[in-house]
Design a protein that fits this description.
It is built from six helices and no strands. It is mainly alpha-helical and about 150 residues long. α2 (about 30-45) runs parallel beside α4, α3 packs antiparallel against α4 and α3 packs parallel to α6. The longest helix is centred in the middle third of the chain and has 32 residues, at about 65-95. It is elongated, with a radius of gyration of 25 Å.
Length: about 150
């Protein structure tokens, strides 16, 4: 049994409308509130890149409103919190990797059995430094648009 022409026409119309709205949303033609909501949702899901992208779409065609400014502050504070946590981890790693010469840790670091652990900590330290640089870049992008 074949579906009726009316049913097929309504399905095709719905599909075309959904595709059109998706393209409008993708290129920044929807209302600003749509993108602010998407940015906050992405931030709630812990996706900073998507939150920043949605915010940039929100201010792409319209001047920043109070809502968009608040969203920018929320995104900036989330980035700042992550940078702070990474910096505190770097301080912890630095205390282990570069202890004072009169401490017990200094002499432990000199022995061969701890070298693998120290190399792993150095790699983690480099990763944290790179992550901080990336987060600062995101923060700079956010401030450019704001």
């Amino acid at each position: 049994m074949l579906p009726s022409i009316g049913f097929l026409t309504s399905m095709l119309t719905g599909i075309m409308a959904k595709a059109g709205i998706a393209q409008l949303t993708k290129h920044g033609y929807m209302p600003q509130a749509t993108y602010i909501k998407a940015a906050l949702k992405a931030l709630k899901e812990d996706d900073l890149d998507q939150a920043l992208h949605s915010y940039q779409l929100a201010v792409k065609r319209w001047r920043p409103s109070q809502r968009s400014e608040v969203a920018a502050e929320i995104i900036a504070s989330a980035i700042s919190v992550r940078i702070g946590k990474l910096q505190s981890r770097l301080e912890e790693l630095d205390a282990v990797l570069n202890p004072p010469w009169f401490s017990r840790q200094f002499w432990r670091n000199r022995f061969g059995k701890n070298r693998e652990m120290l190399e792993e900590l150095r790699r983690e330290q480099e990763g944290c430094q790179e992550a901080i640089e990336v987060l600062r870049g995101l923060l700079d992008q956010l401030k450019e648009k704001g």
